[in-house]
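As noted in the main text, all predictions were made from sequence alone. Below is one such record, for Craniofacial development protein 2-like.
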Amino acid sequence: MTGQGESPRKTLVLTKSNIFPVITITKLATWNVRTLFQCGKLAQVVREFHTYGLNILGVSEMRWIGSGKLTSEGKTVVFSGHNKQHIHGVGFVLDHEANQALVGWKPISDRIITARFHSRHGKTSIVQVYAPTEEAEESEKDLFYDQLQDTLNGIPKHDLQLLMGDFNAQIDGNRAGWSDILGPFGVASKTNNNGHRLLTICSTNELCIGNTFFNHKRIHKQTWKSPNGKTTSEIDYICICRRWRSALQDVRSCRGADVASDHYLVKGSLKLKLKKIIKHSGTKPYDLIKLKDQKIVKMFHKDLSTRFQAVQVKDDIEEQWKQFREIVTTAADQTLGRRRGTRRESWIRPQTWALIDQRRKIKHQRESAKSSDEYWKIEKQYEQAHKVVKKSCRDDKKFWTETLCADAQKAMNRNDTRALFGIIRHLTKTGKSSSVPIKDKTGKTLLTEEEQNMRWYEHFKEILNQPEPYELPTFEDEDGPTMEVDMGDITTEEISSALKKLKNNKAAGLDQISAEMLKNGGNALIAQLTKLCNLCWKMQTVPSDWKKGVIVKLPKKGNLGICGNWRGITLLSVPGKVFCCVLLHRLKTSLDEKLREEQAGFRYNRSCCDQIFVLRNIVEQCLAFQKPLFVNFIDFRKAFDSVHRNTVWQVLQKYGVPLRFIDTFKNIYEGSSCCVKVQSGNTEFFRINTSVRQGCVLSPLLFITTIDYVMRKAMNYPKFGISWTNHKRLTDLDFADDIALLAESMTDLQEMTNSFAKNAATAGLSINSDKTKLLRVGGETQSNVHLTINGIEPINNITSFTYLGSVFTTDADVEADINARIGKAASAFRRLKTVWSSSKVSKLVKIKLYQSIVMPTVLYASETWKMTVKLKKHINAFHQRCLRRILNITYKDHITNDEVYQITKPLCAIMSTRRFRLAGHVLRMSDERAPKIAMSWTPQGKRKRGRPKLTWRETFRKDLEMRGLNIKEIEEIAKDRKKWNNLAAQCAQERGKL
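Prediction:
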């Protein structure tokens, strides 16, 4: 028996033709869900996906922003949406089998997406669409169908083609002229404009409209019902290429599926077997969390000690490394095991699923209504049930958030900051994936995984193998005196010290030996690692595994379909890092003494803030004394990746680095190679011939030494730079490759830029003219004079520039920098809104998170700011807004700012403390240091008439006056850190008051 209005059930007759063959049916469907931009909606769609046993579901009107790929409840979702608005949007939901068979997918627009699959016969391409409505402008329809035709043209002709989605098209049963693409079972009374467009595009591409070839009751043909229940229509279709028409077994609407949409799920059965493609996901890392258990650590010690005692140490580096690696990894396998993946449970609670089931029952009653009055009565019940479901989903999401917040509180209570910030990251992430199809050099989107893997291989191989410089640097015959550094055998103490410097919770290299494993390996491991490192030091080479790296891709800003908008970080062997750490420790102090004062990058007791402080003081004083200043902010094209290696070795020799160190470095770099980590594992390895090694502890020192030599040669002219001291001119301020050239005239700056570009090119470095900027301060504007690189590439003249994260302007105003910092801090604050509103997180934890995440963002380089009353009010106002939001204080509570500040100080008071600490840091420097000189530096010139502009120096002088001090008498006080810090705290307490 069948229910009223239902299609007769199909029966399978057992014959010789179908007893033995197993016909595999792939179930696919299309559904306009109205929106997935609603709490809990995706989970409901996935549940219906399970209920109907689907393999592939095409979704229309998702309303998600952008495009990407994510996983939900074990199902893979790929989507293509509008770039800015929550409108339109299409996508696919795939089960495990379909995901394994997925060749690739391509987001065309917010109305079209394609996916291609491996199948037994070859390849299957599916296009999911959401067409404009019948009432849409003709131009909008033309654009859509033009894009759709281009998409269909791009599908290989031998593929099985499927086109499905919400076409908003009505097609009647008149087959005249369309008999090859239209079946006899259309339901519309008249073909509308969209219907004619659909027929035309199907005819052009030899597609059959599958819905019209299967005879079902009218209710199982209709795919949409109007809100009033009076109008029904068939506007969602599944189309298939004509030569594969017989593979389509059935198409019908499923009225039982319910996600509160006015469209029905349209399901098709395809006699097709998707091909299983085994994708290797790589080896899982070791379960390092077990090393927090001292019993496990002792077992690990014992296992390693026993295994090391049983082996005979060999003099061959490769053999000794192989023994070490196998012993450590075998012991880790036995003691630690591999980390297991954890599947997250759905945050929707059972009571909500019960409400969803109740809503489905009401929908079934509504569909069975006998009269219009009965329909409207049940429709109101359905609307109310849907409101209850939406509220319940929001409550569940809030409960899930509160549970995570409670876990964060527990982590804080046990002082587990790693777990705390892990939960915070989980709470603040958007949930959308950055996995989008990438493009080749010509801009063509690559669909297959093999093509994308090859593109990543090609991209990083090209970046890390830059062409040789046209002209190599010339070095004088005589090298500098050889440095006096430790050349003896490496000791266990050096290895232990190097291990302590390694950070935990960092990914291991290809050998899978992590820092935690080495740190917890005990004396036996340290002894064996010392022997291995000594053999490397003696032979001046390293094992081949230490020369190999894995590049991991991290997204930056912009279109992630472009490889250039991804950053690669390289994972190297951790034991190899230990060896390099020892060499770095021996060499760093002696080599650092030979570097120029202008370079502050990667050097002890120097920071970005030092350079920002120097440049701010220079800009402020030049403006005050009407002294022209021209600053060229240099930007390189991939500086670390393009530096010429032979130049690096020659520079080290010139600076007096012992040849044994240089030969060892050469051997580490010689034959170095990398692969790229991709979804299915790793690409093939490629050789690296240029660049300093990413991820190597030696790279920063090697790079800044090379830059130092380039700057020495380029700036070796008496007139370059600005007047600095009686015996010196200041030509530049550097932080690694972030370089600012300083000059008193445009003519001098042009000569400096030309000299720098020429000398940088000999080291393989090229200036990026698009990102290099000129800032003019004071004096004549000279707007008719333009700065260029080598007389060809122009450099833009700007009024503000962000250098080392701090904004500099032509008028020396810090308000632009303050606004930028507040904007970044406000963004960080908004991302934590779930934490601020949670009742499960104590106020103490909220304040700690605020102090750890938001305050450092707004206070970055604030010690270099001059401070007016207006700026103090602006900063403290932001601080008050944040604190009152955290503490849930409104204006109705009549709580004063001073009462709020009982919890934490005003930001201006904190800035005053930081200003004092910076001043103390500078005053304790030697007289040759640039920050020390900048603190009292005055250019030659005259002040303007009238009240002088406020400067940092004047702000600090006012700080001192509040304690009855002046700048001349504080240098001795600054030498006593404790006394100075007490003075800073006292001053901050008074300066915090407006």
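Residues 492-809 form one domain. The chain has four domains: 24-271, 350-428, 492-809, 815-991. These features were considered when defining construct boundaries for the mutagenesis experiments described in Section 2.9.
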